[in-house]
Design brief:
By secondary structure, this protein is an all-alpha fold. 64% of the residues lie in helices and 0% in strands. 11% of the residues are buried.
Length: 127
């Protein structure tokens, strides 16, 4: 639970910061365009604007990665919670629920929405 809270706060911080930097960069580039039309020095202002814009895109991209990790961890916690509830049930008690209504035709998922991998491969977005 603590991990998901940290991932969620990181996601929000990076997303908001990235959007602010993108807006700031575009505003500064706009000012550089105005300076160019009035025949004033615009190169450094335009460069600063492009640096801020690209930094904002990078920060927002990292926010997307944090969002992916957050959703994956949240799904893992929910599946563990469900497994904990089902673990208390004894064998043979009550009807067994089938997974036909889950929308998965192959049935080879790991329960957290991601396909099962046979090797030890991990995406660079996963920890």
């Amino acid at each position: 639970m603590k991990n998901t809270a940290k991932l969620r706060s990181s996601w929000l911080l990076f997303a908001i910061s990235g959007l602010i930097l993108v807006g700031l960069g575009l505003s500064i580039v706009g000012e550089a365009i105005i300076l160019k039309f009035t025949k004033q020095a615009y190169f450094l202002v335009g460069t600063l604007g492009l640096v801020a814009f690209n930094a904002g895109l990078s920060v927002f991209g990292q926010a997307v990665i944090f969002r992916y990790r957050y959703l994956k961890a949240k799904g893992r916690e929910e599946s563990e919670r469900k497994a904990g509830r089902n673990r208390n049930r004894g064998r043979g008690r009550g009807p067994k629920r089938s997974g036909s209504g889950s929308g998965s035709a192959s049935g080879s998922g790991s329960g957290d929405g991601s396909p099962r991998r046979s090797s030890g491969f991990k995406s660079r977005f996963e920890e």
